[in-house]
Design brief:
The complex is a heterodimer. By secondary structure, chain A is an alpha/beta fold. Chain A has nine helices and ten strands. In chain A, the strands form three sheets. Chain A has a six-stranded mixed sheet with strand order 5-4-3-6-7-10, sandwiched between helices. The N terminus of chain A is likely disordered. Chain B is α+β, with helices and mostly antiparallel strands. Chain B has 13 helices and 34 strands. The chains are: A alpha/beta, B alpha+beta. At the A-B interface, strand 8, strand 9 and helix 8 of A face strand 2 and helix 2 of B. Chain B: Keywords: Membrane, Transmembrane, Transmembrane helix.
Chain lengths: 313, 678
């Protein structure tokens, strides 16, 4: 598990900005810094439209790819006349196609994300907005979905800087609701969005039915998966005391606990094992796992950690 | 564990605890009002709870400091309610008298393989180590005598060496002399002459099995250090006697009684041996005894006997043996497992050899009678005329036979057989023609003619196995026999043989002259004489010798020494503790040294009457290995402290526990208020 140093138990988290749960999703300062970034993919993903990324496809660009024998009907403009002069044979020059990149942002809008201070949902909204902004300004095809017990919201494909306000507005309107049924939500997402692309899943991954059943739809195959697990500091270092009745925000499940040191210790051990199992699952399927606490400023996450992990460049 | 306190009302405390502690726990469960807190997911919390609950079913109550404190408080109060009491040994004072019992019961092996004496010595040495600076002590070893092993000294080394010197004996235990000795020694101690001095500490290391403990008294603070375990078991021979049957002198009757000082009823097989050779007693009436524990109360005995199929107690055995020689009879029990005291597992008794009889026949001449007397195989049967008898007036014969002669002189003590004459001074009288009320000697004797036999006592030792049906006499004296005299042979016309036992003499009166009868020609005649001799002479002197107690002094008369050897210079005494060569002085009594150990001792050369000596415990007091709880002293009232029954001081714990409970209550209050403010 990648634990961000600022959330290591025993250390005091860095001073949070003034009320991180309020204010705009993107302010101009951040947007200016985000302008310098672009979404990266470790896979050669085919796009739908001409864009700025090399494709596996042969097409028109300045990037040479290969030669092939000339066949009747080929465009004569791509014949390599220098080779013809030397070999007296016609070879056609092939170039790599340049296409756009599909970027899918899957945002967990289940009720469990509306927890913690700084709030997990707000944090994930800001991350999603920042990623969407980067995608749009770089002419990528950006799709943002909200998932809880199903696919609850979908922006459809958006491209270009002028869609930024629409994206931000869409994100602002999302509200935490319902329980997590990641399996169903991811299945529907995969059915609706068949194009290959980068898929960033923002969630706490507290799924009682198990995260595996949902992630299997977006891990491997056509998606270059980035699983970003956001947890609140209160979930990493519970500050609970006494005899409590813990109520699950998603399904109102009640758990009676008497907070003791062994219980806290056991909880932390279970959390650690849970995150580790998520990381192993994602990594084994070619994805990238990233863990963050909401105590970490979201711009630090975007501008530093996501760059280091290869999502942004 | 002696330090562990005893609870005087533990049952009430347990009942209260069984009610109150669960009530407190239930209250805690009911009292829990959980605050509801929203969390993102209970997924991991549930898993953590499950993981903990696998090993901790009462996880809900774990680490609850208030509950823990309240439970401790409650337990302390309950313990105080049970009133724990412990006894502790106070440290020795400035002057201490150490009394160590080394009697037979202190050899019991119930101190984890050690004897009680060894344990007593160990404790005494511990006491010496704990003596205060400048304190003095003395050591007295006691059994039925007291021995000052070490006078007053402040040197612990000397005291410990003296304690180590004390040896185990098999003697009985009497603390009276030890107390007297302690009193005397204390009075000679210069420390005690000072004014306002504390009375001495008297430390008695014993199991409390003492003779007459209530008669003992001593001035001082008596502390009874009880040695021994109440759970020890011991089977002991507590009585053994053997005696020849008065009526059948060749028959020895052995009687033994055993006692069980353990905790459970037991069947105990017994074994009898003669001169070391085991004899089969399986055909005897009983070759094992069934013993109830001596510590049982009457109610326990009755409860046992009320159980269906339970075996009744039978604590004694008796055997009959034919023994015509000297022998040592040994009885032992075979239940040696869990028997902590070995010295009382067996006992010996010495049966002396048959006595050499002396016989005098006073007759004018009777061929048949003389031949019959000679056939008795008596060493020196004497025959004398009546005139010689009157002249010599012998007194040292076991039996005198008067044949048709009534003597003028008759020894006051003796056994006599009268043929054809009735002695004076007996209740059996000669019938005269003056009637039964006439004074003795008046009138003429009535003589019966032609008398046959009507019947005889066939089971009497004198007439046993004799055929007298064809006995006939031409003339016989008529006898008046009172009811308390025994007629052995009844003739057709009157009694013919009468046994008349006076306090100091026994008379066997044959009412006819054997020459007037056909008896001398019959085999029954010499047999009659033989059996009469056995009965009259042998039976009186064939009782076994009494066994000796350990420590008893044996004095041998000089005449007995001279019987063994006129020039005897030394005697060797061989016993369980080895051989001792004892020089014989020229004058005075010869006294054997004290025999401390039980077993069989013998003298070499054999001194008549003292050839073998049996030393046995045969003492219920010493064999009872249950340590006494009673302090062995009747302490004078002018002493300051008597000590309790166990010889220790009593310490009540309840108010200490209440004090600790108060402290716990304060802590609980502090924790509670701190929680409120938090």
């Amino acid at each position: 598990m990648t634990v961000i140093p600022s959330t290591t138990p025993g250390r005091t988290p860095p001073p949070a900005p003034v009320d991180p749960d309020s204010g705009p999703l993107l302010d101009p300062t951040v947007m200016a810094r985000l302008d310098q970034l672009d979404v990266m993919s470790r896979k050669m993903l085919a796009g739908k439209l001409k864009g700025e990324r090399r494709s596996k496809r042969r097409g028109q660009s300045v990037e040479f790819a290969d030669y092939r024998n000339y066949t009747i009907g080929d465009d004569l403009r791509f014949i390599d006349w220098n080779i013809y002069a030397r070999l007296d044979r016609l070879f056609l020059k092939l170039f790599l196609e340049e296409e756009d990149l599909a970027m899918y942002i899957v945002l967990d809008v289940s009720k469990s994300s509306d927890y913690g201070k700084p709030n997990k949902f707000r944090y994930m909204q800001r991350v999603a907005a920042a990623l969407g902004y980067i995608g749009l300004v770089n002419h990528n095809r950006v799709v943002l979905c909200g998932v809880s017990d199903g696919l609850v919201a979908d922006t459809g494909a958006m491209r270009g800087r002028r869609k930024v306000s629409q994206l931000v507005s869409f994100i602002e309107k999302l509200q935490p609701m319902g329980p997590s049924h990641m399996a169903e939500a991811c299945r529907r997402f995969a059915l609706q969005h068949r194009s290959k692309g980068v898929c960033v899943v923002l969630s706490d991954f507290f799924v009682k039915e198990g995260f595996e059943s949902g992630l299997r739809y977006v891990a491997g195959g056509k998606y270059d998966l980035f699983a970003v697990q956001c947890l609140a500091p209160q979930e990493l270092e519970p500050d609970l005391q006494g005899d409590l009745k813990l109520r699950d925000m998603e399904d109102d499940d009640l758990a009676e606990v008497s907070i003791t040191q062994p219980l806290i210790k056991q909880y932390k051990a279970n959390l650690n094992a849970y995150c580790l199992s998520l990381k192993e699952y994602v990594t084994r399927r070619g994805g990238t796992y990233l863990f963050t606490s909401t105590a970490v400023p979201f711009d630090t996450l975007v501008l530093n950690y996501l760059r280091e992990r290869g999502l942004l460049g | 564990m002696s330090w562990f306190p005893t609870f005087t009302s533990w049952q009430a405390g347990l009942i209260a605890g069984a009610l109150v502690i669960p009530a407190l726990l239930v209250l805690y469960f009911l009292k829990l009002r959980r605050k509801e807190v929203a969390v993102g997911s209970t997924l991991l919390w549930r898993k953590a709870i499950q993981d903990l609950q696998v090993n901790a079913p009462f996880q809900k109550l774990r680490r609850n400091l208030l509950l823990l404190l309240q439970l401790i408080l409650l337990l302390l109060l309950l313990l105080a309610y049970m009133r724990p009491v412990s006894n502790y040994t106070p440290p020795p004072g400035k002057t201490t008298v150490i009394l160590i019992d080394c009697s037979a019961s202190m050899a019991a092996l119930d101190q984890e393989g050690k004897t009680r004496l060894e344990e007593a010595k160990r404790q005494a040495k511990e006491l010496v180590d704990s003596m205060p600076s400048g304190g003095t002590a003395m050591v007295i070893a006691f059994h039925d005598k007291a021995d000052p092993v070490q006078p007053f000294t402040a040197d612990p080394l000397l005291l410990k060496q003296a304690i180590d010197r004390i040896k185990q004996t098999d003697r009985p235990s009497d603390i009276k002399l030890a107390y007297q000795l302690a009193d005397a020694q204390v009075n000679f101690n210069p420390e005690q002459l000072r004014a306002n001095v504390e009375p001495p500490d008297i430390r008695v290391y014993t199991d409390g099995r003492l003779l007459n403990p209530d008669d003992a008294a001593v001035k001082g603070n008596v502390t009874y250090q009880k040695i021994g375990s109440g759970q020890s078991g011991n089977i002991a021979v507590v009585a053994l006697s053997a005696k020849r049957n008065f009526e059948r002198p060749t028959q020895v009757q052995v009687f033994a009684r055993l006692a069980n000082y353990g905790t459970e009823p037991l069947a105990v097989p017994v074994q009898l041996s003669i001169d070391g050779e085991k004899i089969d007693i399986s055909t005897a009436r009983a070759d094992e005894v069934f013993l109830y524990p001596e510590r049982w109360t009457e109610k326990q005995r009755q409860d046992w006997e009320a159980k269906p199929g339970s075996r009744r107690a039978d604590d004694s055995v008796d055997f009959k043996l034919d023994l015509t020689r000297a022998a040592v009879i040994r009885l032992e029990h075979l239940k040696t497992k869990d028997d902590v005291l070995a010295a009382d597992n067996s006992a010996n008794v010495v049966v002396p050899p048959p006595k050499e009889l002396s016989l005098l026949l006073v007759t004018d001449g009777n061929y048949f009678l003389q031949r019959a007397v000679q056939s008795l195989a008596i060493k020196s049967p004497d025959v004398t005329q009546p005139a010689d008898y009157e002249a010599k007036k012998p007194t040292n014969y076991d039996v005198i036979i008067f044949d048709n002669y009534k003597p003028k002189f008759l020894p006051e003590i003796g056994n006599y057989i009268w043929f054809g004459v009735v002695p004076d001074g007996t209740k059996t009288r000669l019938a005269t023609d003056e009637g039964p009320t006439a004074p003795p000697g008046s009138g003429n004797a009535i003589v019966l003619d032609d008398v046959g036999v009507l019947d005889w006592k066939r089971d009497h030792p004198i007439l046993e196995n004799l055929g007298l049906g064809r006995l006939y006499t031409a003339k016989a004296l008529k006898l008046n026999v009172p009811l308390d005299r025994e007629v052995l042979l009844d003739g057709l016309k009157g009694p013919l043989i009468v046994l008349d036992r006076a306090p100091k003499a026994t008379h066997l009166i044959v009412a006819f002259d054997v020459m007037q009868s056909n008896w001398p020609l019959k085999p029954s005649f010499p047999m009659f004489l033989h059996q009469a001799m056995q009965y009259l002479a042998v039976g009186q002197t064939m009782d076994v010798r009494q066994s000796l107690r350990p420590g008893e002094v044996v004095r041998i008369p000089r005449s007995k020494l001279q019987q063994a050897d006129i020039n005897l210079k030394s005697v060797t005494l061989t016993g369980p503790d080895g051989k001792k060569e004892l020089p014989v002085t020229d004058a005075g009594e010869f006294v054997l040294p004290v025999m401390e150990k039980v077993g069989l001792y013998s003298t070499e050369p054999a001194i008549p009457g003292y050839e073998k000596l049996a030393v046995n415990i045969l003492d219920p007091v010493e064999s009872n290995v249950l340590p006494s709880d009673k302090i062995p002293a009747a302490v004078p009232t002018d002493t300051t402290d008597q000590g309790n029954a166990a010889g220790k001081r009593r310490l009540e714990w309840w108010w200490w526990l209440a004090l600790v409970a108060l402290g716990v209550l304060m802590i609980e209050w502090w924790v509670y208020t701190r929680r409120v403010h938090m």
